[in-house]
Amino acid sequence: MKRQQITDFELFDIVTCGDEEEKQLLLEEEIELQGWVRTNRDNGSIGFIEFNDGTYFKNVQLVYTVDTKNHDVISAFKTGSAVKIQGKVVLTPENKQPFEIRVEDAELLGDVFEDYPLQKKRHSFEFLREIAHLRPRTNTFMAVFRVRSVLSFAIHEFFQSRGFIYVHTPEITTNDGEGAGQVFDVTTHTSKDPFEFYGRPVNLTVTGQLHVEPFALTFRDVYTFGPVFRAEHSNTVRHASEFWMVEPEIAFADLSDNMDIIRDCIKFCIEYVEEACPAEMEFFNNMIDKTLLERLHHVVNSDFKRMTYTEAIEILQKAVKDGHKFENNDIFWGMDLQSEHERYITEVVVNGPVFLIDYPKEIKAFYMRENDDGKTVAACDLLVPQVGELVGGSQREERYEKLKAKMDSLGITESLDWYLDTRRYGGCKHSGFGIGFDRLLMYITGMQNIRDVQPFPRTSNNIKY
Amino acid sequence: MKRQQITDFELFDIVTCGDEEEKQLLLEEEIELQGWVRTNRDNGSIGFIEFNDGTYFKNVQLVYTVDTKNHDVISAFKTGSAVKIQGKVVLTPENKQPFEIRVEDAELLGDVFEDYPLQKKRHSFEFLREIAHLRPRTNTFMAVFRVRSVLSFAIHEFFQSRGFIYVHTPEITTNDGEGAGQVFDVTTHTSKDPFEFYGRPVNLTVTGQLHVEPFALTFRDVYTFGPVFRAEHSNTVRHASEFWMVEPEIAFADLSDNMDIIRDCIKFCIEYVEEACPAEMEFFNNMIDKTLLERLHHVVNSDFKRMTYTEAIEILQKAVKDGHKFENNDIFWGMDLQSEHERYITEVVVNGPVFLIDYPKEIKAFYMRENDDGKTVAACDLLVPQVGELVGGSQREERYEKLKAKMDSLGITESLDWYLDTRRYGGCKHSGFGIGFDRLLMYITGMQNIRDVQPFPRTSNNIKY
To answer: Strand A430-436 relative to strand A242-251: parallel, antiparallel, unpaired?
Structure first.
């Protein structure tokens, strides 16, 4: 009889969701699994292997005895070995695991050198960062990277199902976005001359927004989703020099439309991940952050309030007057809010997600639309409890003269002349926003360090791979 | 009565696919559209506007008369203007267009400067490349970039629905993949010192494969899909310095399994795009390549044949002997096949897609698995008519000693020591492949130049934006 090749995912799926006929069939079949040994303990008469083939978060329990064929080989399987297993499924509804596999035969596919660093014990995240290529084999990182994949797809699903066009904006560019200068330069390895390859100096992009706007003024609803780069030596848990950004841009949308889409997108992503990764989300809630699911459910059920920057300043000033102590108690209109101020607003004042809107123009980017007061711009930052800013967006300055004057004052008109064309040729009201994908992933998993949600994190002085 | 905001896509969808009730409702409603004028001609008593809001490939025809409110404003709408239209839908089943809009009022949202380069005439692709930010407004590029978006999603859909985990492999790295040296170096703008930011010299990645393999040895089925870079001065229609690659990696898969997945993936992508973009594909078939749809259907209906490199060499040698003239007639075992040879095999010999397998090890990458003959490796290149190579893949060398010896001989063992860990710790049979996404898009659209399928192409001496 030919053995049935099957995966962990298929096994759990049939046992927990299959109908009686499927289950019966499974119990009768000889099955074959290929995967890796997480742990192996043999007490002499009976042995247990925690087995995982990567297709599902939970391990499968394998059981063997002294009478199992190739017992000596099986008993010697080391943590980390790649193995092939043949056996039969036995339902164990009385146990924690709904089923186990009675091993009938097994084969070692790939052995493990003695210095394997992932032995059976708890390892610190700091230690695991040093072996980024092996840490996905641990529970936490297997959960993180599956959720990363699912969340990426959720982003695409959200925008594609609403008719948005995905635009691959370029990584190598001649402009540095908002002009902050903290960019990486690019030259060929063979010639270090910055003019050699492209005829002019180039750098890695810090944002796809400027390049995606012309597509919004053609396709109406567009988004870009790809890597961006910052050459900042910020050694914090939230900064990386390479990360992925989601940047939608919507023609004929004002700031209010923009906030509707941000709210819908965040809610969609949370619900999508919870639906697709229940085992992983339960794990995060148990092991990483006991308030995670409660916090996410609260967001999904919130209407996202809106508050002007000016109101927020007044509230913060009143809080200080009433005796609240911030690290920085010097609250004034025109200041850049710090994380502690943002968290006070979202956690204490609103107790839920809140958009701050209409920021002083001096502290926001040149492309944001000036409001009629002449002092503020139509920006919106989404603040959420425990994190602060999660998404930043704005209505864009569509008025040619106003935008050009702003760009002239920054000295960027010449290098971004093509960008101004979007206001010369059939320009219109439009808005957009940016989601730091890695930070959204941190928010949804409860992970506290950006280095622990990126497959191979790139931060200052850290690039082993 | 509140006017119904609607898009081009929704209009075409209701008129061509809606039921009678939906159609009736649409005909009774006052509708409002926002979008751009493609052309506007007013013959005095009646005027016609070709209108497009970016949500659908086909234009909507707007009709106005001297009696239409704001006639003078409407009549003066220039090509490229952003406008708001109010009116009513009229079905015109006897015309080429199944409906038109009788304009009742309209408003200019964004005017067009006199020097607008996209006037009503046919522009060459060469000219349009100089205005990459405006060319999506032409029929060809509106079709190309919508298909690019849909094809991207098809890739994700194919792999996610099969349980593959999407891995964001890094862009900045310390290794140069296959060691060809044609890489871009990265330094901070403020300090040109290559050691300043990361503590060691770094470059842009040429492949995600080496970084994705450790994830396959955890999750079993994984893929990466992101930008890669080559600092080659190749000034051809198929080379760009920045492009997107799809790189799946599958544990426990041999070369034959690998080819099954490649075949299924290519067929899925073609069928997905045809289903999602019928208007665009019809346009490409009419305007770009009259054999396009026939060629694609032929691929979808083909079993993908398999032929060894050695057989191919024998066939080519026989062809030369029988009088066939190649540019390069010097056919010998061990040579790297050129495009003309590949096309002869796929077009003349097979007349359909064909995998060439088991290439001489000297002309293939170090990580490919050596066959038992000691001379060839388990590589597979998918050749298709009119293009030649479309996909390249291989079974990977999982045997530690063999791989280490190969890497020692290339002097890359030290810098890629972490990669060797995947063979030290529970290594197993695995395979993978790479699809140049931009070339696949060229293949599916019939577009002949890679510069015409990338939003902002990056090639030697070409980086205006």
So the answer is: antiparallel
Q: Which of A144, A168, A464 to mutate to test the interface with B (most CBs of B within 10 A)?
A: A168
Q: What value does the mean pLDDT take over residues B389-415?
A: 95
Kindly report the nearest CA distance between residue A411 and chain B, in angstroms: 17
Residue B96 is predicted with a pLDDT of 87
Question: Measured between alpha carbons, how far is residue A139 from residues A38, A96, A123, A159, A461 in Å?
Answer: 10, 17, 11, 31, 27
- Calpha distance B222→B381 (Å, rounded): 20
Distances (CA, A) of A244 to A271, A322, B164, B169, B379: 21, 41, 20, 11, 32
Q: Which of A9, A189, A214 sits opposite B203 (nearest CB)?
A: A189
* pLDDT value of residue B177: 58
Contact yes or no for B231 and A189 at CB 8 A: yes
CA distance B98 to B294: 27
Query: Exposed (0-12), middle (13-18) or buried (19+): which is B213, by Cβ within 10 Å?
Result: buried
Which chain B residues are within 8 Å of A220, Cβ to Cβ? 7, 35, 53-55
Site of tokens 């910055």 = A194
The complex scores an ipTM of 0.97
Please answer whether residues A249 and A209 qualify as being in contact, where contact means their C-beta atoms are separated by less than 8 angstroms: yes
Instruction: Tell me whether A195 touches chain B (CB under 8 Å).
Output: no
Tokens matching residue B20: 């009678």
Helices (H), B53-204: 71-75, 125-129, 139-161
Report pLDDT digits (tens) over B7-49.
999 999 999 999 999 999 999 999 999 999 999 999 989 999 9
**pLDDT lower than 50: segments of chain A:** 1
| Selected residues 38-67 of chain B with any CB under 8 Å from a CB in chain A | 53-55
Residue with tokens 């905001």: B5
How many CA atoms lie within 13 Å of B444's alpha carbon, on the beta-carbon side? 33
Structure confidence at residue B1 as a pLDDT band (50, 70, 90): very low
CA distance A343 to A347: 6
Contact A421 B153 (CB under 8 A): no
Does position B241 have pLDDT exceeding 50, yes or no? yes
Residues in chain A: 465
DSSP secondary structure code for residue B195 in this structure: T
Tokens read off for B91 = 């079905």
Which of A4, A28, A23, A1 minimizes the C-alpha distance to A12?
Answer: A23
And the tokens for B100?
């038109």
For residue A260, give the H/E element and its range: helix A255-276
Task: Output the pLDDT for position B179.
Answer: 59
Cβ atoms within 10 Å of A302's Cβ, excluding its own? 18
d(CA A118, CA B185): 34
- Would you state the structure tokens that stand for residue B462, as one six-digit string? 């070409």
Instruction: Answer whether A428 sits within 8 Å of B202, measured CB to CB.
Output: no
> To which H or E segment does residue A129 belong?
helix A125-129
DSSP designation for A252:
T
Mean pLDDT of chain B: 95
Are the beta carbons of A425 and B134 separated by less than 8 Å?
A: yes
Q: What is the pLDDT of residues A251-299, one digit of tens each?
A: 999 999 999 999 999 999 999 999 999 999 999 999 999 999 999 999 9
pLDDT digits (tens, 9 = 90+) for B293-308: 999 999 999 999 999 9
Pair of tokens at residue B203: 């470059």
List the alpha helices (DSSP H) in B288-336: 292-300, 309-321
Q: Is B221 on the interface with A (CB under 8 A)?
A: yes
Sign for the pseudo-dihedral over CA of B258, B264, B270, B272: negative
**What pLDDT, in 10s, does the model give residues A92-107?**
999 988 999 999 999 9
The C-alpha atoms of residue A105 and residue A88 are separated, in whole angstroms, by 10
Question: Per residue in A192-221, is it b (16+ CB within 10 Å) or e — as a string?
Answer: eebeebbeeebbbbbbbbbbbbbbbbbbbb
Pairing status of strand A172-173 against strand A202-204: antiparallel
